[in-house]
Amino acid sequence: MTQDPPETLAAYPHPIIAREGWPFLAIALLVALALTLASWWVAAALAWVAFVFILQFFRDPPREVPSQPDAVLSAADGRVVSVGIAHDPYLDRDALKISVFMNVFNVHSNRSPVDAEVRQTWYNKGSFLNAALDKASLENERSALQLVTASGAQVTCVQIAGLVARRILCYARRGDRLARGQRYGFIRFGSRVDLYLPTDAVPRARVGDKVRATESIVAQLHRA
User: Fold this and answer.
1) What rounded mean pLDDT belongs to the chain?
2) Is the pLDDT of residue 5 over 50?
3) CA 118 to each of CA 20, 52, 147, 189: distance values in angstroms, whole numbers, following the listed order
4) DSSP string covering the chain, please?
5) Rounded distance, CA 188 to CA 167, Å?
6) Is 152 left (phi over 0), alpha (psi -120 to 50) or beta?
7) Residue 63: burial class (beta carbons within 10 Å; 0-12, 13-18, 19+)
8) Contact in structure between 29 and 58 (CB atoms under 8 Å)
């Protein structure tokens, strides 16, 4: 029996700044204010720059969900770095792999690419290589979800830590139901998301494309 999604997976009427960033922002603000009040101008200026950087990193704007049936949405903001047939190590199958690299200036909130049930989850410890590299898919710290749509299509969605990223946050659990565009996780400070789709899915994104989580369609599932 499928359990109700936890509160963190509910439709996300959220503040523009992601809650994952609130502690970092509070600390940065206190430091900047303290240095300013102490008249340590150079240090204060650097602290305010750091505060603004953290503020932009944790922004989390609302997004509109495309209505096209069978569309696979980007799970992350960033640049497409890989599109092609590859081995899905989680479901041990050939798959269409689409990878999106997020730099530190992208929104880092992760969203479900399809309407689906979470059938299985995986977490693997690993390295912290540059997430733009192909080998990061298998060597870096990562968290993966097996998503199964109503038509039976299986999508593997993988959050991958990067060179700077040190924390993957995944709120989805086995048995949860996710809607397209629903927020399910966050990665702090530079990272990557891989999607493994059925081989008959049609890619709608190319290497080099800049995409936005929820709003950009990266592939189309085959309609039975």
Assistant:
1) 85
2) no
3) 23, 36, 5, 26
4) -PPPPPGGGS-----SB-GGGHHHHHHHHHHHHHHHHTT-HHHHHHHHHHHHHHHHHTB----PPP--TTEEE-SSSEEEEEEEEEEETTTTEEEEEEEEEE-TTS--EEE-SSSEEEEEEEEE--B---TTSTTHHHHB-EEEEEEE-TT--EEEEEEEE-SS---EEE---TT-EE-TT-EEEEE-SSEEEEEEE-TTPEE---TT-EE-TTT-EEEEPPP-
5) 6
6) left
7) buried
8) no
Q: Which residues are catalytic?
A: 191
Residue 223 has pLDDT above 70, yes or no: yes
Instruction: Report pLDDT for 129.
Output: 55
DSSP 77-112: SEEEEEEEEEEETTTTEEEEEEEEEE-TTS--EEE-
**Which amino acid is present at 56?**
Q
Two structure tokens written together for 85: 């047939």
- Phi and psi for 213 in degrees, rounded to 5? -55, 135
In one-letter notation, the amino acid at residue 98 is I
What's the first-to-final CA gap in the chain, in angstroms?
26
Q: What per-residue confidence (pLDDT) applies to 67?
A: 85
User: Which is higher by pLDDT, 178 or 135?
Assistant: 178
**What pLDDT, on a 0 to 100 scale, did the predictor assign at position 3?**
36
* Two structure tokens written together for 53: 């950087």
Structure tokens belonging to residue 42 = 């150079």
What residue type is 36 in one-letter code?
T
- Whose CA is closest to 20, among 211, 191, 156, 134? 191
What's residue 69's pLDDT?
83
* Six token digits for residue 158: 């993988």
